Amino acid sequence: MVSTDSATVYLEPDRNLGMELVRATEAAAIRAVPFIGRGDKLAADGAAVDAMRKFLGTVEFDGVVVIGEGEKDKAPMLFNGEHVGNGRGPSCDIAVDPIDGTSLTAAGRQNALSMIAVADRGSMLDASTVYYMNKIVAGAEGIGVIDIRKPIGENIRALAAAKGKPVEEITVAVLDRPRHAQLIDDIRAAGAGTRMLLDGDVAGGINAARYGTRIDMCAGIGGSPEGVVTACAIKALGGFIQTMLHPIDDDQRQRGLDAGLKFDHVYEADELVTSDNTYFVATGVTDGGLVAGVRRMGPVIRTESIVLRSRSGTIRRVIADHLAEKWLD
Question: Which of 44, 149, 204, 275 could form a disulfide with 218 if both were Cys (CB 3.0 to 4.6 A apart)?
Answer without folding.
Answer: 204
